[in-house]
Prior knowledge:
transcription regulation, transcription, HLH_DNA-bd_sf
Amino acid sequence: MILADSPAIEQNGILNLAKDQNRIRKRGGSTAKEPSPSRWRNSNQNRVYSAKLFDAVRRVRRNDSPVKPRGRSIREAADRALAVTDGGRTRWGSAILASQSIRRKNRRIRPVCVGEPRSKLVGPGRRGGKIPAVEGKVKFLGRLVPGCRKLSLPSLLQEAADYIAALQMQVRAMTNLTEKLSGFAAAPLTSRPVSDSGSPIPS
C-alpha cells in the first residue's frame, strides 16, 4: 500500500486524465485492451480479493516471524494478494510480485558503506538547477506507482488510475475483514461457528 504511506494525491484528477488519454487512443484507432479501473468496483472482483486477503492474513498469523513486524508482514501480504488478483494485467501488479520474490531470495544483512556523502548534482546540465514543476510531479507519481518510474505520461496515468482504484478496493476489503475479525473475537465461544477440526472459525 505504497500510496497510503505517501502524501495525498489528487486522485480524481489522475482518474480524469487517464480517461482522457483512453479517449484519445480510441480515436487514434488503437486496439490494445487496457485494464479498466472500474473492474475494482466489481462485486465479484471484491469477493475474490477478500478471499485471497483472508488467506494471506491467516498465513501471516500462523507463520509469525520474530524478525519482521506483523504489521509489515500483513501489509506485504495484502499487496501481494492485490497483485495476484490483478492477474499480471498491469505493470504495478507485476512489479509488486517481482519485488517481493526478490526480497525473499535476498534476505541477508547488507554491508554498510561509510564514505563521502553523495553529490547533489541532479545530472548533466542541471548543476544546482531545479526540475520543472510538471516534470517533478510526473517523476513523483512514477515513484509512487510500483514499476512505473520510466513510463510515458499516458501509460503512467493509466497505471496510476488503476492502482488507485485497486487500493480503494483494498481499503474497503481490509476494513470489512477487520470488522469481522473484531466481531468474531468479541463473540462468545458457544456462538462461534466450528470447523471440521472443532476449532472456531470466523463467519
